[in-house]
Amino acid sequence: MISLLRVPLIKTLLVIALMFFVTGDIFAEQHLYGLHHSAFEPSGEDFKTSNKTTKAAVLTGNGLHGSVGSIDQRYAKGRLPELESPTNQWSGTAWRGERVYAQLVLFSKEPVRQLRMEPTAMVSKDGDSLGDGSLNANFVRYVLAAETLYPDILDPVERLNLAANTTRPVWVTMEVPRDAKPGHYSGKVAVKAAGNVRLDFTFKLEVLPLTLPAPKDWKFHLDLWQNPFAVARWHRVEPWSDEHFRLMEPYWRMLAEAGQKCLTVSLFHHPWGAQVYDGFEEMVTWTRKSDGTWEYDFSILDKYVAFAERVGLDDQINCYSMIPWTNSFRYIDAKSGDWKDVGAIAGNPAYEEIWGPFLKALEQHSKEKGWGGRLTIAIDERGEKQVLAATGILKKYAPSIQLSSASNHPPSDFTINDWSSTFGTSVDPNMVQERNSRGLKTTFYVCCNPTRPNTFTFSPPAESAWMGLYAAAQNRSGFLRWAYNSWNENPFYDTKYWPQVWAAGDCFMIYPGPRSSIRFERLREGIQDYEKIYILRKLAAKQLNDPRVKKAVKELDAALAVIDHQSVTNNTAASVQVKDVNVSILQLSRLVICPSSLVQSL
């Protein structure tokens, strides 16, 4: 018996010793060369790709190799990349105020140490510059999704090592200032490694004389739900402390720079139950006094809204929820000092007894804070009967507070100011048009379904960009996604959340740091396209006497007409549709005349 136990014990001790030896060497290298801890990745099988012929074989000699790749392609870590035409040249076009993307793919049969990038600014032949940081590059890091490795994280690590027979994607971002001079610009990204190894990549960008508004002024209604409690847990700080707000700031600014319109507020403990790793806690403390009356502490809510306004989220305040998933509400019993729970279902007398006084207090507090029409009571995926009951109580006690709802049943009237339908739900386009004419918002959302299109870690990247084009094609106001940053225990390792069955990446689109992702940046790309379409339609409407403009508008309409809830039937469908629409956008962009007086009126 003892001899049987000794063998595995010795093996375990040897493995632990080896781990200390290896990781000790790695950490020493980090300290010496500035390598970042995020260079470490989980191990796992690569995802499957097509068996099409690749020209990568011409680049498989010893040493570091690289090429410009496609932003629609995910490159497997343990295989040579599929490259139709290996090149070190990239070219594209952009509006002023636009963010444009490219992807490089690096690979080697031998180990490459101290891999790093050195981008230049983008300048024209006349010496005009798009500014420092106009050309930027991040290594793409791999994470697990469905027990398979996928590239997703855009990591700011300065250096990393490339193991033998592996691939490393690099995400390249080009930022065009809104005041940039139209013209042709170029810049370089030098990829260097130890031993005087160097690869140079050239980026040429034509800046057109059209300008996107600042993200806060975009028409697109973006609603990605934020989780401040995940930030507190990951960074090990007390929720709502000064340090917590300091750490949240770059995450929320990143979201504001994507045109986010809504702040996610939890009125009480766990409005969605325990569906995420970091449950949402109350931002308003409810206390029931000994005489049965209620007292409400809004101090956390006030601090949170003030913080959001400071970082650029100063539009809609969505308060969840009058109908929690558990139909249970938590409060402090003043007499005992204990937390207590009370159950109440919308439509029952007890429900109105709880919510009537609170809604009156919330409306009065909103007026005192000057929040005006920004505050909404938000309801998520509740039955129509309950929604109607809650709506009646809201309008009875707090008529100035708006209502927002995400559901798979269309609203029976126009009392819901912001309605988001489940992707694929049959929605009458006449109703959408009527809501638009009334100034109401009608968006759509994806969540744990459908399988495609979606923004999962394993979803084809173009599907994220496709969301903005779907909104444009279907006359929708924007897009909702239930989780911006509800991380699991270790999002750098696996993007799936257990014990729930949510698909990998369903709970979050960015990573701690904050680190952006391919998915998030492609979503932002699609939102920019939505804005372009809106502006181009306005400009073209005044120039339809030009037959070229009229023809280009028809071609844009035809490209968008293909896009509906059934058009993404395989892994390449979204990519094809996004490319087709962008060809039409570019063609119309080159034709329309954009006087400054017209831009100001859009």
Account of the protein in words:
This protein is of the alpha/beta class and 602 residues long. It has 2 domains: 43-211, Immunoglobulin-like; 219-282 and 295-326 and 346-518, TIM Barrel, CATH 3.20.20. The protein contains 12 helices and 23 strands. The chain has helices at residues 2-33, 228-235, 242-256, 299-311, 349-369, 384-397, 429-437, 462-473, 518-541, 547-561, 573-591, 596-601; strands spanning 45-46, 64-68, 89-96, 99-108, 112-119, 135-145, 148-155, 160-162, 166-175, 183-193, 197-211, 221-224, 262-266, 285-288, 294-297, 316-320, 328-333, 339-343, 375-380, 402-407, 418-422, 441-446, 478-481. The strands form 4 sheets. Strands 12-23-22-21-20-19-16-13 form an 8-stranded parallel sheet. The protein has a 6-stranded mixed sheet with strand order 1-7-6-9-4-2. A hairpin with a 5-residue loop joins strand 17 (328-333) and strand 18. Helix 5 packs across helix 6 (384-397), helix 8 runs parallel beside helix 9 and helix 10 (547-561) runs antiparallel to helix 11. The longest helix is centred in the first third of the chain and has 32 residues, at 2-33. The radius of gyration is 26 Å and the shape is globular. The N and C termini lie far apart (82 Å). Mean pLDDT is 90; it is low at 1-39.
Put the structure in a nutshell.
The protein has 602 residues and is an alpha/beta fold. The protein has 2 domains: 169 residues, Sandwich (Immunoglobulin-like), CATH 2.60.40; 269 residues, TIM Barrel (Alpha-Beta Barrel). The protein is built from 12 helices and 23 strands.
Name a few traits of the molecule.
602 residues, TIM Barrel, 2 domains
